[in-house]
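Re: that chain you flagged

S.,

Sorry for the slow reply, it's been a week of failed gels. I finally had a moment to sit down with the sequence you sent. For the record, here it is as I used it:
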Amino acid sequence: MTLIKQDDFIQSVADSLQYISFYHSNDFVQAMHSAYQREESDSARNAIAQILINSRMSAEGKRPICQDTGIVVVFVQIGMEVQWEAGMTLDDMVNEGVRQAYLDPNNPLRASIVSPPIGKRSNTGDNTPAVVHVEMVAGNKVDVTVSAKGGGSENKSKFTILNPSDSVVDWVLETVPKMGAGWCPPGVLGIGLGGSAEKAMVMAKQGLMDPIDIQELIARGPNTAVEELRLELFEKVNQLGIGAQGLGGVTTVLDIKVNEYPTHAASLPVAMIPNCAATRHAHFTLDGSGPVALEQPKLSDWPDISWDPGDDTLHVNVNEIGPEDVAKWKPGQTILLTGKILTGRDAAHKRIQEILGRGEALPNGVDFTNRFIYYVGPVDPVGNEAVGPAGPTTSTRMDKFTDMMLEQAGLLGMIGKAERGDGAIESIKKHQSVYLIAVGGAAYLVSKAIKSAKVVAFEDLGMEAIYEFEVEEMPVTVAVDSKGESVHKTGPEIWRNKLKVALPVA
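Prediction finished late last night. Pasting the structure tokens below so you have them in one place:
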């Protein structure tokens, strides 16, 4: 019998969550660097460069890779010969580890969990509860896989039940373009085949925890039908031309993971879950000898690269511009923003809608006239930071509020990540506004451009409060110009044509 102590388990969970908040795994860094070296699209290459630079900065500074420090998902395999010295349930031990990790004063992580899921949706304040999967296995040890899954990628999860004679490849190739860029490609796609609906989803999630090894598989060749499927999907998904951040390019996925399980003769359940450019997971084993100490990677594991904004980069003071200025900006153009911008996400937009709907004035300090809003929920600062990691959130969630913000609030432009829907693009065109993107997965890098931050409204919303940021040369790209041209439409189309791949007919 192996005796596992409660405090050892809790400390191991807490330490691993801190660890994955600022360390990418080496296999991911090397795969991303290989993608950087292969990339032929300048826009995508620049985005990957920022992701890699951000990754190294986070490792050096021990601060979160992404402002969205995720919902915690833990897989626990308990050996049948294990005995616990614990007064808490397994879920309670996991949640105590989460609580300690996310409230660590040396590196506080963003609390993103709300309860209940409908209705009031109040933030739990410590990122609990986690989602815990438990399996009893042979042996005398406890194997734990800890992950922190960002909302942008989790929201793009897909599930279907195909007919047994249907093509999994066709479904994937039809579905991936519909996912947009909110999952921050390039990343990994986890696919679960078979079982039941819930089994397929769990298998897809589990696949994301495995090491990236597609290049090794390419080198040795497939031995099974699943390995053949992985290779076929890896090639064909990348030929879709979606590219880094959805800007168009040769690398959309770094790997494809496929897990399978026997299923009903009448069914073919298929689940697909993406992992983003801030992929975070760690595995450890408890054998009764005490808490686990994860090995600290060497900074030499990260490539030494730099990012050059380019000669045609526009330096803009947002305090001094108007509609006539943004009308000159071109799709795909890099802009370095300086000046004061406001922030706001889903909850803030909903509250603004309610206030304007009642015919009331917005709170003091919240005047959007000819200003920019940044869709962000930052991490709390430490030390001399103005703000913690503060990368963009997925902009499509704000599409329903776009016309209101442009027409009633007087907004000049928006900053976020990924594409906008057709309705939002039409509103941008109508109001001759502009939509800019920052790189998702480069939150710590972006935060270095923020020189001051203060809450100006809705403080009770926590990370979803409205802040005023003063930024200095914050790097962004024009994603939708004042004429309604979207780089998320033109970029992938250009690269699909270059790669000579036709989308399957729905």
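What I noticed first: The two ends are 56 Å apart (CA to CA).

Talk soon,
D.
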